[in-house]
Amino acid sequence: MKVLSIAALSAFSLLTPVSAVPSQFVTTCTNLAASFENENTEVLSSTYVLEGTFIPSTEMCTATATTRANLCRVKLKVTTSSTSRVIMEVWMPTNWKNKGKRVIMSGYGAWGGCIPFGEMAWASGLGFAAIGQDSGHTGPSASELSDPEIFKDWVYRSVLVSAQAGKALTNYFYNTPLNKSYYIGCSTGGRVGLKLAQDHPEQFDGIIAAAPANYWPNIEVSEALYAHIVGAPGSPTFLNQAQWAAVEAAILAQCDGIDGVIDTVLENPARCDFRPETMLCGAGQTWELDGCLTVTQIETVKKIHAPLYGNNGRFIYHGVVLGGISSQGYALKYGPTVGSGPRDFLRYVVYNDTSYDLSSFNLDTADLIMDNDWFGAHSKSPDLSGLQALGKKLLVYHGLSDAIVPPAASYQYYDSVSLNMSLTASELDPFFRFFPVSGLSHCYGGNGASYVGGASQATYLPEALDSVPAENSALMALVKWVEDGEAPETLRGYKLDSTGETLGQKDHCRYPLRTTYKGSGDPNNRGNWECT
Ligand SMILES: *[C@@H]1O[C@H](CO)[C@@H](O)[C@H](O)[C@H]1NC(C)=O
Ligand SMILES: *[C@@H]1O[C@H](CO)[C@@H](O)[C@H](O)[C@H]1NC(C)=O
Ligand SMILES: *[C@@H]1O[C@H](CO)[C@@H](O)[C@H](O)[C@H]1NC(C)=O
């Protein structure tokens, strides 16, 4: 790893012009452990790191990165209670003062536990001081969340304390006050983004909440029920990955043309009235020979896509969106690992009993989970008047082939804000915009124009950072909105191959407008679509 100590630097400076080494920057950086003071905060290390340095993942995590700027990399520990702490990093690039003096915090996904190096490399490459943190525990497992203090850190507290420490460090290090601060997160990170907008609007000037997993206890309940609906691999109710792919093909066969163009992307899956019965095996037919499904499997498909209701008809959660299960959905939620998320939640957070088994889950357990506040993990308050009053901006986007968190939840949230605040869409526009993104899976991937330069996407496909202009990213669109008052009318999406090569583009319209095919021409050309 190309981390330079002071000694290495003096050797380095013999070979290169002195001007290439910002010596004051390096000295201030390496001295931070001794000099920076902040409440409950300890600097664990501070090193000057050159652009192009490989950063390995932290313990038990997989997020590696290659730096895209020369920067000061600082690792800190913030104590949040007698039994909990947050490990965080701040990456502060050399060109920060010329790049708008911005700070950005990246959110965590799933159970957290990992510092999002990929996103920090992206943002610091754009001149931001980038903050990332481990949500209060080490590694992607939920096992440490049985301590309520650690669970509270995961719900929201880790973000508040690390934002405070990261901003203080940035101001101290550059000896200049930061100008604007941003938050970007997907999934659990999106949920936290909404929580910040609802309860802590003073923290960030602009927030991107992607595919937000708010209504979070309801999500846990729905996943526990899916474990029963889908069943274990090999059971009569279960569909394997190829069978889900066949379901997806049947969905396209029935509905791809509804939006006016056959392009393997459903522009609005909610308009598809899918009938899986077309896949039913006739007499003597089998999956192996005929690619058909049994009655039991067709019932699974219908139940997965329908809304879930509990005791006394209580609404639990939206059905899974049509068309997104076969790859990412299968890997994360409806395949062999089905039920592992809610199982761990019940084992560690609800009952603190590692022998808990989902076979004892029932609708009374569902009520217990949905009725508990969980330190505010629902993150569903429809009242954004604080955000509005402070002039802060919230940009939500959600993939329309997201099989992990149904996009219906984001429409529900948007509409709940509209009704709660009694504001029409054009009255929400100044501070809250929601972009449904067709052909985007959960956070990243999908076969549409799914790369929007948003949360978690740089980590998934770093090649995109070199092929897609940064100014067209959701992040820089948010910056323009916050700093220049130019609100994004659309979100530019790129359809990319696995090397980051552009195959097409689409400008995704904001709800309640619809992204509409004009009726002719290449659907991969954004000029052939309009907002109506
Ligand atoms: C959870 O269970 C463990 C082991 O039985 C125990 O040590 C711990 O105190 C419990 N935690 C809580 C919050 O009850
Ligand atoms: C709006 O939401 C807030 C927070 O949930 C609630 O206290 C308030 O009563 C709601 N107002 C209306 C008009 O629904
Ligand atoms: C902070 O950002 C605003 C909005 O872009 C800009 O007008 C202002 O000049 C900036 N201030 C500093 C000190 O950079």
Structural write-up:
The chain is of the alpha/beta class and about 525 residues long. It has 3 domains: about 1-180, no CATH class; about 180-215 and about 385-530, no CATH class; about 220-375, no CATH class. The protein has 19 helices and 18 strands. Strands 1-2-5-6-8-7-9-10-13-14 form a 10-stranded mixed β-sheet, with helices on both faces. Strands 3-4 form a two-stranded antiparallel sheet. The chain has a two-stranded antiparallel sheet with strand order 11-12. Helix 7 (about 215-230) crosses helix 12 (about 340-350) and helix 8 crosses helix 11 (about 325-335). The longest helix is centred in the N-terminal third of the chain and has 27 residues, at about 150-175. It is globular, with a radius of gyration of 24 Å. The N and C termini lie far apart (about 50 Å). The structure holds 2-acetamido-2-deoxy-beta-D-glucopyranose (3 copies). One 2-acetamido-2-deoxy-beta-D-glucopyranose binds near residues 146, 147, 148 and 352.
User: What distance lies between the first and last C-alpha atoms, to the nearest angstrom?
Assistant: 52 Å
Order of adjacent strands in the largest pleated sheet: 1-2-5-6-8-7-9-10-13-14
How many β strands by DSSP?
Answer: 18
> What class do helices, strands and sheet pairing give?
alpha/beta
| Helix content percent band | 25-40%
Largest pleated sheet: 10 strands, mixed
Overall pLDDT confidence = 95
What overall geometry do the principal axes of the alpha carbons give? globular
Tally the helices: 19
The ligands bound in this entry are: 2-acetamido-2-deoxy-beta-D-glucopyranose
| Rg from Cα | 24 Å
> What share of the residues does DSSP label as strand, in percent?
15-25%
State the low-pLDDT regions, or none.
1-19
Q: Kindly give the count of domains.
A: 3
